[in-house]
Amino acid sequence: MAKEQGTKENPWLLKTPPLSSDFTMHKDLKDGKDILVCTVGKTILHYDYQCLSDLQTMLKKHGDWIELGSADEQKPAKENTVEAWGRSEKNPVGGWYGLKKGLRGRFGMYIPPLMEKLGLAEVTHDPKGNKMRAK
């Protein structure tokens, strides 16, 4: 019997949208809250698990391709991108989906490949300027 994917023991194996780097993600529990644990080399990021359904809802409302716009927390996010939405006061959590201070950015880099893997979205795989839309 196949092990459930997305666990610490059997994480999702993913690639960044330009297909240039590998990373893993799995679901975990922290302080009684479901989170996504994203491991990129030695760096570990946490995102609110709720981001998956919230982002799919936003993409469906948007109805078309939207630029990912990935940026580190310390850099401003380009307007009208997945990254900007992932830190906007107007999203369902009222701010950052990234949960580790200093490492809350890159939402537009690491969440879209998981959405694609789960069949929730389509993602382009160009060297730069990638986009996504709801499936």
Shape: globular
Mean pLDDT: 96
- Please give the domain count: 1
Uncertain residue ranges: none
From the structure above, extract its key features.
alpha+beta, 7 strands, globular, 135 residues
Overview of the molecule:
With 135 residues, the protein is of the alpha+beta class. It has one domain (12-128). The chain has 3 helices and 7 strands; from the N terminus they run ββββαβααββ. It has helices spanning 51-62, 82-85, 107-117; strands at residues 12-15, 22-30, 33-40, 43-48, 66-67, 121-123, 131-134. Strands 1-2-3-4 form a 4-stranded antiparallel beta sheet, covered by helices on one side. A 3-stranded antiparallel beta sheet has the order 5-7-6. A hairpin with a 2-residue loop joins β3 and β4 (43-48). The radius of gyration is 14 Å and the shape is globular.
What layout of secondary structure does this protein have?
Layout: E1 12-15, E2 22-30, E3 33-40, E4 43-48, H1 51-62, E5 66-67, H2 82-85, H3 107-117, E6 121-123, E7 131-134
Antiparallel strand pairs: 1-2, 2-3, 3-4, 5-7, 6-7
Can you give me a brief rundown of this structure?
The protein has 135 residues and is of the alpha+beta class. It has helices at residues 51-62, 82-85, 107-117; strands spanning 12-15, 22-30, 33-40, 43-48, 66-67, 121-123, 131-134. The relative contact order is 0.20.
